Amino acid sequence: MKAQGSSFARFARRGPRLGLAAFALAGALACSVAAPASAAPDKINACGWNKGTGGERAFYEHCANDTNVWIQVKRWPRGDYHRCVGPGRTNLDFDATGAWYDSNYRGGLCSHPGDTGP
After folding, report:
1. In Å, how far from its chain's centre is CA 77?
2. Three-state DSSP string of the chain
3. Which residue of 32, 98, 101, 110 pairs with 84 in a disulfide if CB–CB is 3.0 to 4.6 A?
4. Structure pTM?
5. Rounded CA gap, 38 and 40, in Å?
6. Residue 54's pLDDT is what?
């Protein structure tokens, strides 16, 4: 019986220290998780068409980093057209209502971002 009592006594003495250590560890983890979240960008853009919000113009995000491609830009009330875009973000016309990669237009790939076609 004495063996059980002595192990319980050791646990009881460690109990408050273990609780304090667990609390400190939980606080440290909470701080380490919160820091990267606040350093993250406000918005991650999706590949392809992105509708402008809050006064921002619509844009096309080309996610590949080694090609230039033709996209078809839909505008209203003006007509649609094709545009060569490179990797990254390309701002579109103020009246753009959609844009998508067009693999059928001149084979889909282009050489000079900014070029346009019918």
Report:
1. 32
2. CHHHHHHHHHHHHHHHHHHHHHHHHHHHHHHHHHHHHHHCCCCCCCCEEECCCCCCCCEEEECCCCCCEEEEEEECCCCCEEEEECCEEEECCCCEEEEEECCCCCCCECCCCCCEEC
3. 110
4. 0.61
5. 6
6. 86
pLDDT in tens, 48-106: 999 988 889 999 999 999 999 999 999 999 999 999 999 999 999 999 999 999 999 99
Place of tokens 């000079």: 112
Do 82 and 57 form a contact (C-beta atoms < 8 A)? Answer: no
**Residue 58, token pair as written in the block:** 């619509």
Amino acid at 21: A
Which pLDDT tens digit goes with each residue over 12-27? 555 555 555 555 555 5
Tally Cβ neighbours within 10 Å of residue 110. Answer: 21
